[in-house]
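User: Mind token order:
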Amino acid sequence: LGGSLGRKAATGRGVAYCAARALSRMNSRAAGARLAVQGAGNVGMHTAVVGHLEHGTKLVAMSDAWTGLY
């Protein structure tokens, strides 16, 4: 049947949303916050993209099983 629309990005979107809400509860903002993501798979990639495009974070570091970039 193919699953529901947006399923591929759902977990990463949830991570980005929860992080933005947590920052808000700590009287901080996601916009302009620096983001480091461990894991460049489905969840990590969508967390980075959604964090940047929808919450205004700045990706400063990303890693996977073989390498890391800063």
Observations:
- The longest strand covers residues 58-63.
- The beta strands are 34-38, 58-63, 68-69.
- The chain is about 45% helix and 20% strand.
